[in-house]
Amino acid sequence: MLTLEQNSNASLARKAGGGDMKAAPATKAGSKASMSRMAAAASTKSTRKEPMDSAKPPKTGCWHCQGAHWLKDCLTASADDRAWAVEKMREVKEKVRAKKVTDSPSTGEVVLNGLVMLPYVADLGADTTFIPRQALATGILPADDDPFDEEDEALDLSRQEIREKLDELLVAAGQCGFSPPDMNQLHGLVMEFEDVCRVDLGADTPADIEPLNITLEEGAKPFRARSRHYAPAQRQFLREYTARPEEQGFIRRNDQTHWTCAAVPVAKPHKPGEFRMTVNYRPVNAMTVPIAGAAQEVPDSAEAAKGACGYADFDMPKGFWRLPLHPDSQEMMSFVTTDTVYTPTRVPQGASDSALHFQSQMQKIFAPMLYLNLLVWVDGILVYAKTPDEFLDALRRLFTLVQLHRLKLSVAKSGLFKTDIKWYGRVFNGVGISHDPDRISALQSLSLPVTAADLQQFLCATGWMRDTLMDFSRTMQPLLDKLEGVLSDAGRTKKLAAGVLLSWTHAEAAAFARATQYLRSSQTLHFPTQSTVLCVFSDASERGWGLVGTQVAHWNDGRPAPDQQHELLVCKSGLFDPTAQRRSIIEKKAFPIIWAALHLEYLLVRPGGFHLYCDHKNLIYVFSPVHEVKRHVRGKLQRWALSLTGLTYQIEHIDGTANVWADLLSRWRAPSEEVVGEEHQAKYRNAAPPAANRGKNGNIVVEDRIWIPSAATELLQRIMVVAHCGSQGHRGLDPMVTTIKETFEVDSLGQCCRRFLKRRLLCKHVKGGNIIPRPWGPTYNPTLRNELLPLLGGQLRRMCVSVVLKDGLSHFCELVACDSATSTVAATTLADWTKRFGPPEVLVSDQGSHFRMRPSAKCARACQLNRIWC
């Protein structure tokens, strides 16, 4: 409950009295006695009040110049200044203040300092009365003195700000779905460890961890940076930036050091006049012997996060300033500004060993929780659990470790509970890890890069997402080629690339547009689980390769691999260089398998092994661990197969048409036919006639006839062909219109049929009972069979035979000239027809031997043709 109290003279009097005044029932005589006692006390207080000249100066100082004297004694204040200061003082005193009112203590209890509640006895029978020192010190207050101590007030305000932030985090946790019965436990847990929280970096002692000790190479000599010329705004920024760390003890002045690196204030983009502090430590880093450490990729070690009910993320305020720097390494990290040289006592950001030392120390501190309920990446901490009780226990263990090692957590950059949480550009939930949609939208909204540096930055940003994108290499290859062509001439540094302006052709601009739209196909990577069945699908073409790693939670032996319920783990792709493009087909097919064995070992090594699928049968015998390889196939593939040694796997052949997982590298998120149908219906639904309604099968009908939109040109052409080519031959206009009207409702059907017949050049025109054939050619009028072929000249003079291919539906005819009627010619013509128009359902031919011999029969079986001999 909040009450508002006006800070008037009466309230100040109550404050000075040491407590709030409460009204109690009393008799009239008692009231008069009380009034008389109060008047006597007031007169006594007025008589004891010291004169202003003998009173000590106010703690807040002069209201005009902040000096250690009263306002009336200020020598620099004019009459107007005194009037303004008095008016300001009155405004401060009259300001409305909010107070938090809690439950009052019960009878027989008293609250000490607002924290501890103790029992008390009203009358001890002693001869001496004890008065609190605070009440004695504030019993008599000068008129211009501030009743609050500045340091205590600042400390209280800092604690109050931390508690307000913690209350906001608790409210956000409840809104995100944290279990309501456990909210009280969460609140008590957070308030118990509020001392580990900070709003900003404070003058705290360094963390209780191993200090960073930098080792230099033998023969390293001290480096001294030359003085730089800074702009006035940069000089002012350096003075303001170094003032606070020096006051807190993070840096110290050291004009006797032999090492100095230059301070470089970097302007913040899109923020004029604001800078970011950096130090050029490259000369010292070049002489540093780097330390060894391990930093595992987050998606590779997040198996325990699968099925988590919620996540909490924490950040450390100025995390590098919390780590101590070894005294032997402080001098070499010194930096020079415009005024003096500073030597840091904490780990500086920018040293070659800083980030790895930070990561290794955090992994050492949180080792009991690491990869079980916690992930850490430098100064970022992610906590997760599968149940609310486990979540609270994980938070308690985290806060205990943070408090034990004197670390601090930022309440401004932390979250207590979220079901979906953004952590270092990735979104974590109970299913898997995906990339931040806001980041993807920002990349999609980029315009064409102006300089080579802009294009380089775009490719670097998208390269971080390649594990979640199908067919990444082929999509980004045009942009990589353009960047490579520019950098090969201008130079590969970012500074040189920023000075190169790009010119874009229509093809290159279209490639960039495809690349930006391609980012929306980023997939969610599921958490890998050892209890699932791991599957690896690989494929390769003439120019590139690709593979997909999936897992199946419930494997069904009765179903083929493509029909299982797969969960995506990783997808990789690449392009062959000119040397690799000259390899054989079997070597190209084997390359993604070997690549997976070398780079995806963290997924492939598991107790149950994994299933390996490829669409090349010969690889089954090369990589099969149970078959003996013959001598003539040994060589490069046999050497490559050594990479699979030590892995438990089962390699299986999968037909090319069924290898859908690898084929999806170029069309991963293609919508299904149902989705496309729904989108098309929703798009053209408003164009339907007023009398149209939805039928039983979901189609739009008009008087029991299916309505066909005018924009569905392909569907209309198919209907026209069926209506025109009937069992009675090629129909004319009226029979076509009548046939179509029986089943379909088409706008302007007569005009559509008339346009179709006018452009139909593959069949004879029929008008009434008269057949009007198409006119013959004007120049040549052959009367004998194949008379035209010798007249064509060149090689066609020897071709005296033609193969006739005719489509039974459209009556389309194709003539293939040849020198003789052989089975090879027949097989070639069938293969060419199948490549252009697809395999026909039924193949009808005469009893010619060239159609019945082995090449033609083999071609028919390969094309899956059903042959009927007449």
UniProtKB/TrEMBL annotation:
Limits of the Reverse transcriptase domain: 247-428
RNA-binding among keywords: no
One GO MF term attached to the UniProt entry: aspartic-type endopeptidase activity
Entry keyword set: Aspartyl protease, Endonuclease, Hydrolase, Nuclease, Nucleotidyltransferase, Protease, RNA-directed DNA polymerase, Transferase
Residue stretches of biased makeup (Polar residues): 1-11
Organism listed in the record: Phytophthora fragariaefolia
Region Disordered: start-end pairs: 1-59
Pfam families in the record: RT_RNaseH, RVT_1
PANTHER family per record: POL PROTEIN, RIBONUCLEASE H
Name this protein carries in UniProt: Unnamed protein product
Segments of skewed composition (Low complexity): 31-45
Coiled coil: none
A Gene Ontology biological process term: proteolysis
Keyword Mitochondrion included in the entry's annotation: no
